[in-house]
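Record copied across here:
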Amino acid sequence: MKKIFSNKIICPLTAIVCTLLWGTAYPLIKLAYADMNIATVPDKLLFAGLRFFIAGIMVLIVCPFMKKNPFQIEKSRVPKILIYSLLLTVFHYTLNYIGVANASATKTSVLSSFSAFLGVLLAPVFFKSEKLTFKKIAGCVVGALGVVIVNLSFLSGSFTFLGEGFVLLATICSAAGSLYGKVAAKGKIFEVTAWQLFVGGLIMSVVALMFSASIGFTLKGIFELLFLAFVSAASFSLWTTLLVYNDAGKIMIYNLLIPVFGSMWSFIILGEKDILSPLYIISLALITLGIVLVNMKEKKVAKN
């Protein structure tokens, strides 16, 4: 499996597929909220909790077909799964939903993309095999410019702790969770991913219900929920696999594509924002250049 997912063609294509799938969440969540009368933060947390809970069940069901037994998890790995789940699912999404409710969509999009930069910058701190190079820093700067240029209104307005502050904290949890998952899932990628989603979704659902969350289920809304659960199950499984078999920074920089694909799917599904505008095209070009720079191999200096 390592040979497949570290392949120079399959690896970037898989990362792009993951971000392409995650991008569908932007418009589909909006549709689901409208279809099932989801308005309050507890309601949104319950919806997210159910989404990840079902995603966890989906991965658990698939595991036996991949000759994986998710019920044979070492006791020493249980605390790691819990920490992984709390960081990447519970804290990340809880903070994000509260932040989104108190900040503009534009600022949320820009701030959320910072997890890509954090992954590149922090990976060398946790993994000795990864080095922070000039090309990686340049890639982060160029990629950041690409995100901001298509969201210029990000530069105006105020900053609040419960809004932009919580979105930033969610971004930190996302980056930390992804980096921690590289360690927690090693050797048991699909099993750990399944339990991470299952446990995180269960915790979020229980907490949301404690705050009187409710969802008005409809047939269309259930279909949207199941599709979003599939997106999480497939994307997190593939993404974790990429993180385990490759340098974390080189994979996490692809997170920059999520808001880009989110805008694309919002245009296709909801008719929002013209993705053919010059700013959007320039943004995509800069983000692509940033990803290329981060993934470029450093030339080895010959020793005399």
Remarks:
- The chain has one domain: 2-295.
